[in-house]
Amino acid sequence: xxxxxxxxxxxxxxxxxxxxxxxxxxxxxxxxxxxxxxxxxxxxxxxxxxxxxxxxxxxxxxxxxxxxxxxxxxxxxxxxxxxxxxxxxxxxxxxxxxxxxxxxxxxxxxxxxx
Length: 114
Ligand code: SF4
Description:
Blueprint: E1 2-5, E2 14-17, E3 23-24, H1 29-40, E4 43-44, E5 47-53, E6 59-64, E7 68-69, H2 73-80, E8 84-86, E9 94-96, E10 106-108
Parallel strand pairs: 5-8
Antiparallel strand pairs: 1-2, 2-3, 4-7, 5-6, 6-10, 9-10
This protein binds iron/sulfur cluster.
Iron/sulfur cluster binds next to helix 1.
């Protein structure tokens, strides 16, 4: 049995997931989905930054376009520390395609013209 806080909305319901993946404590169906996923295959979206060159800005904010296995998030953060991009960059441009072979792209969340 696991006890979790649902992070799918600010209400933060206290969930209990038993060994048969029955979820209780949720106020909506999203809590069931989250509770089962968190116990069997926890995943997280990632927001971070990468280095940008040839710009007056030093860092470009990025986000994963899908959720990543929670146990690989630190690997992706380390990898993003090695990435450099050049301006111009447009919002939603793919900065890293299929990061670490995880089937998720890293995309820009800001347009930087120069
Ligand atoms: S179970 Fe539903 S209401 Fe409760 S925190 Fe999760 S998403 Fe929000």
